[in-house]
Structure formats: structure tokens, C-alpha cells
Amino acid sequence: MLESTVAAIGPLDESAMAAARELHGRLTKPAGSLGALEPLSVRLAGLAGGCPPPLPEPAAVAIFAGDHGVHAQGVTPWPQEVTAQMIGNFLAGGAVVNAFARQAGASVTVVDVGVATPLPVDPAATAAAGDTTALAGPRLVAANVRPGTRDMTVTAALTRDEARAAVETGIRIAQELIDAGAGILLTGDMGIGNTTPAAALIAAFTGVDPAQVTGRGTGVNDETYRRKVDVVRAALDRHAPDPADPLGVLAAVGGLEHAALAGLILSAAARRVPVLLDGVIAVSAALAAAAFAPDAVGAMVAGHRSAEPGATAALRHLGLDPLIDLGLRLGEGTGALLALPVVTGAVRVLHEVATFDSAGVAEK
Ligand SMILES: O=C(O)c1ccc[n+]([C@@H]2O[C@H](COP(=O)([O-])O)[C@@H](O)[C@H]2O)c1
Ligand SMILES: Cc1cc2nc[nH]c2cc1C
């Protein structure tokens, strides 16, 4: 499934992009006046293979949740149980992501891809694979590959088979959401400790030093921060992951939610549906997706610039400019949801704005 998904990813359609550029030149606005929205809409035309591209509706957020063996190294002050507890909160509609999803009209799908502690939810709330109500959310998909990763400072976080299973879970979730009609996918994540593997992935794929890409996550103190940098460096020294082998990198220093997000991104790119990236966990997964298939970057839209320094290093490596920069560092998909109206606006212009000719407005 991974290989066929990667093989289906191709370049942007140049003639659709030329048509979008030409249309922009005829719309009733000074050329270039919509700034970053113009190249974004051109790229979405190239992704769709036509101009105008479809409006990115309906929107679907997929929140992948997992736990981390490296939690044992004291890289975060939060207990691991918070991952499972927040799943309960997502399903009850009480998290920030739910508030923003209601505002944006987006569905919420929560995927347990590797939570370590028992979920505080009724198993009857668990949707079966292939559920046709994928866009009705919030719903839970049970797809636990293993109860958290292993401690990457001691051994590889995952076997290659486990990493593949998580990637393929992400591929399957994207397929389900797109088959149910989603016009854009938004990345979400939940996992206490997951900014540590995100930093390790970013260092591995970009070659930037761990001290430059490791951040304070949920807000760790100076002592924990120093330990976190040492932990990331120790894991990279131990495994020396090869950035040309993305499955190997994900297995050595990744997380189950990072791997699943890489799969979601690859699957969206293969189906030529845009994927709106959230914060540092999403962009670390995007680096893995780009290592599997460089053309996958064509489907990625960077929703926001996370406060985590690794996010900026990853976005630079991907050549993506974030749409908004508000100092957010929550995850869950919250930054992507806030950016969604910008993406919709960029496309709506190509559908609805009059041309100089049709509106009888004089050109310069
Ligand atoms: O999205 C981000 O950029 C982001 C930045 C900092 C923290 N987070 C969230 O906080 C959790 C991980 O933080 P930590 O300090 O436990 O590694 C995890 O649930 C993430 O979704 C997310
Ligand atoms: C409360 C809480 C909510 C979160 N949402 C995403 N990561 C989180 C981490 C914590 C600790």
C-alpha cells in the first residue's frame, strides 16, 4: 500500500497553473495584490489539474494519537495518561480543536495509532474501518499498532514493520476521508512527549543540529530543555538514521502519530487533494513524506509557523511559507484550522471574482 501510494504521486499540472496565472491577470484587482494567496491558488490548480480548482470543502481534521517510550527520559512534565484523557476530551467536543473545527465547519476524526494507557471512552463509540459517516465526527478509529513507542535512547522506537503499519494507517484514513467527500485534509496530533521525536526527525532529515531544532514543547523548564536536547542528540548518535531511508528514520527516532501523518500526507498527494499542515509534529512528518516522494510537497500547504524552532527548519527544508504566524504551540490541528479560511479564500477568488472585461472596469 505504501509503495503504490508513493508511485501514484506526480508533479503539478503546468497547464492548469498557467491557466490560473492567466486568470489572475484578468481579475478585478491589481496584479499580485493578493500576495501569498495568488501562488497558493495557482499551486492548488496544478494539484487539481484544472482551473479553477475545486473549493477545499468539506474539510476533515485527522488527529493521530500516540505515546512515546522516550517519556521515561523526563522530556516533558506531563504524565503519559494525558494523551488518552485528551482523546476523551476530543470525543466529547471539549478541546480547542473542537471549538475551531466547529467554527470552520470541519469534521474531527481521532485515530488511536499508539496510545499506551486505557482510553476513557465507551468502545461502542469506536467507528469501524470503512465507516461511511467519516465526515460526521467527532469519531474514534481504533488502529493501535502498539501501546507507545520504545525509548529511542535505548533502542529503535519502532520496528520497520510497526512504522509501516502506522504509515499505512494514515494512508487508509486519508482514503476513507477522501472517499467520504473531503476536499481538504488537515493534520492533527496528540501525544505527550511527541515534540522530542519531532525534533529528532527534523534533525535527521534536514541535517540541522539538535540544539537548533529542539524546542520547549508544552513549555518545559531550562533543566528539562537541556535534557531534551541531549536525548535527541543521543538518539541520533545511537541510530545514525539515513535520511534517504524514511521508513528507517521513522522506525529509529519517530513516533506512531508522526508515521501515520506521513501516510496521510502521501495519500492526500496521491489523490491530488490538498493537505493543510499544522505544527511541528506535522512538518516533521511532512519531511518523511517528502523523502518518500518529493512531489508530495505539491499537495502540502503550511497552515502556520509553530513556536517550536524545528518547525521553521522543516518548513525551510520543504520550501514552504506558513500562512499564519501566531506563536501557537498547541498541536491537535488548531493552527491548520485557523488557516483554513485563507486557503478557501485563495480558491474562492478564482471562482467568484469578476474579470476587468466582464465588470467593465478599466485596466491601466
Ligand atoms: O503543534 C505544535 O507545534 C506543538 C508544539 C508544542 C506542543 N505540542 C503538543 O504538545 C504535546 C507534546 O508536547 P511535549 O512537551 O509533551 O513534547 C503534543 O500533544 C503536541 O500536540 C504541539
Ligand atoms: C492539556 C494538553 C492539551 C494538548 N493538546 C495537544 N497537546 C496537549 C498537551 C496537553 C498537556
Automatic annotation (TrEMBL):
Keyword vocabulary terms for this entry: Cobalamin biosynthesis, Glycosyltransferase, Transferase
Pfam families, per the entry: DBI_PRT (PF02277)
Glycosyltransferase found in the keyword field: yes
Domain of life: Bacteria
InterPro entries cross-referenced by the UniProt entry: Nict_dMeBzImd_PRibTrfase, Nict_dMeBzImd_PRibTrfase_bact, Nict_dMeBzImd_PRibTrfase_N, Nict_dMeBzImd_PRibTrfase_sf
EC number: 2.4.2.21
Keyword ATP-binding (UniProt): no
Known pathway: Nucleoside biosynthesis; alpha-ribazole biosynthesis; alpha-ribazole from 5,6-dimethylbenzimidazole: step 1/2
Top EC category: transferase
Active site: E332
Catalysed transformations (reactions): 5,6-dimethylbenzimidazole + nicotinate beta-D-ribonucleotide = alpha-ribazole 5'-phosphate + nicotinate + H(+)
Family the entry assigns: Belongs to the CobT family.
Function, in words: Catalyzes the synthesis of alpha-ribazole-5'-phosphate from nicotinate mononucleotide (NAMN) and 5,6-dimethylbenzimidazole (DMB).
Full protein name: Nicotinate-nucleotide--dimethylbenzimidazole phosphoribosyltransferase
Organism field: Micromonospora coerulea
Highest classification ranks of the organism: Bacteria, Bacillati, Actinomycetota, Actinomycetes, Micromonosporales
Gene of this entry: cobT
